[in-house]
Design a protein that fits this description.
The structure holds 2 protein chains of 2 kinds.
Chain A lengths: L10 E5 L4 E5 L2 E5 L6 H12 L26 E5 L2 E2 L10 H12 L15 H13 L10 H10 L17 E3 L8 E3 L7 E3 L6 E3 L2 H12 L5 H13 L12 H25 L6 H14 L12
Antiparallel strand pairs in A: 1-2, 2-3, 3-4, 5-7, 6-9, 7-8
Helix pairs in contact in A: 2-6, 3-7, 4-7, 4-8, 5-7, 7-8
Chain B lengths: L9 E6 L2 E6 L5 E3 L3 H15 L36 H12 L3
Antiparallel strand pairs in B: 1-2, 2-3
The chains are: A alpha+beta, B alpha+beta.
């Protein structure tokens, strides 16, 4: 009978071109993207360690001196292991808790945090998704989809396309890449939910953090009841991204369009590279892009703030 | 003409034969006498083209506000969240929920 192994074998949790995450028992080591800005990353990790973010962001651990990075020369960070959302049971996802965590994050006064806080990288990731789509051949089954996605992208204002706009001061602490893979229970297995992955965290428009669920709802993917619950929990917790009551879309519209375009662009790039058809959900995001691209231009612009 | 709310100039647009004035600043919309009725008539024509609903009548307005580019099922029968495509869709959506 095998004896229990006190040091379990390293278990890869994620291995993407931009980062590698490996679990060693209670410890998780993350190798960050080779093009990470080292100062910005250090500040982002210091924010996660700051007492104002206790109970919101998973706090980092000191990086063990003996840690051997998967990619020498790239920045490495260490985190406690937390239990993720069960990917096979998205219906059990903690939508309400996620909304409350975002509201608390967005209400954190940036001037009390480590400086200089970099910009939130949401728009940069959207621009990168478009570049990745452009670098990929059109999907054989959807030859016009590239043009549809590009058209929807060019209807966005400059700031949402990662072009700096001095008229929009960056005032709010944002996560920058919110999805259900960005939540863990800590301490595992049943502690409270925390947000993880600070690589895109920074100052920006907090609507960006609500925009993925908003885009899924607008595409007809996320059930209206779940969307309503998420939005109500965010408002109840004093989240500043949307007006406290009434139609939230004046604030959400631009960011939700940007996330729709980003998701569609990545779906086209990935499915073409993998030589597979678009799945039904990916097609729905491209359908959303087509509706965005067909909006009459004179009704297209958001009112000035 | 100028916007009654913020006094910025308004521009005239034509939508299906209906003249609409829109403010260049706050994007508010002004309708002349009879234009709202014209829009209501167009809406009624549009609804007559749709097949008669089966079972309980659909909600006339969506429970939650949606953007102008939202999927057409908002406020409709809601079959897109389940139905015979439900399982298929849930799998793809499950993947999308967890990816950047």
């Amino acid at each position: 009978m095998p004896s229990p192994d006190p040091t379990p074998a390293p278990e890869p949790l994620a291995d993407r071109p931009d980062s590698t995450v490996v679990r060693h028992g209670p410890l998780v080591l993350k190798t960050h993207a080779p093009d990470s800005d080292p100062l910005a990353l250090t500040t982002r990790i210091a924010v996660a360690a700051h007492p104002l973010l206790t109970g919101i962001l998973l706090p980092p651990l000191p990086t063990p001196a003996a840690a051997t990075p998967a990619h020498p020369g790239r920045p490495l960070s260490a985190w406690p292991y937390g239990t993720p959302v069960d990917p096979d049971d998205p219906d059990a996802a903690p939508w309400g808790e996620t909304a409350i965590l975002l509201a608390r994050l967005h209400r954190t006064p940036p001037e009390a945090l480590p400086a200089p806080l970099p910009p939130m990288r949401g728009p940069a990731k959207a621009a990168r998704a478009l570049a990745r789509m452009h670098a990929t051949a059109p999907h054989p089954a959807a030859p016009d989809a590239h043009r549809t996605v590009r058209h929807a992208w060019h209807g966005l204002p400059a700031w949402a396309r990662d072009e700096p706009d001095p008229a929009r001061p960056l005032t709010t602490l944002c996560h920058g890449d919110l999805h259900l893979g960005q939540l863990v229970r800590h301490p595992a297995p049943d502690g409270p939910w925390h947000l993880i992955d600070v690589d895109d965290l920074g100052l920006g428009d907090p609507a960006w953090d609500l925009a993925r669920p908003a885009a899924w709802y607008a595409a007809g993917l996320l059930h209206p009841d779940i969307w309503q619950c998420f939005l109500a929990a965010y408002r109840h917790a004093g989240g500043p991204a949307v007006r406290p009551e009434g139609d939230p879309w004046p604030e959400l519209d631009i960011a939700a369009r940007a996330l729709t375009v980003q998701t569609a662009a990545l779906a086209l790039a990935k499915s073409t590279t993998e030589g597979r058809p678009l799945d039904e959900v990916e097609q729905l995001m491209i359908d959303s892009c087509a509706r965005i691209a067909s909006l009459p231009p004179e009704l297209d612009a958001a009112p000035p703030p | 003409m100028h916007c009654p709310k913020c006094h910025a100039p308004m521009h005239t647009y034509n939508r299906n034969g209906v003249q609409i004035e829109q403010c260049s600043n706050c994007r508010g919309i002004f309708l002349d006498y009879g234009e709202l009725e014209s829009l209501t008539r167009l809406e009624a024509q549009w609804n007559q083209q749709a097949p008669p609903p089966a079972g309980p009548p659909p909600q006339a307005y969506p429970a939650a506000p949606a953007p102008a580019w939202g999927a057409p099922q908002h406020g409709g029968h809601g079959a897109h969240y389940g139905g015979h495509h439900g399982h298929h869709r849930q799998k793809g959506f499950g993947r999308m929920l967890f990816s950047s």
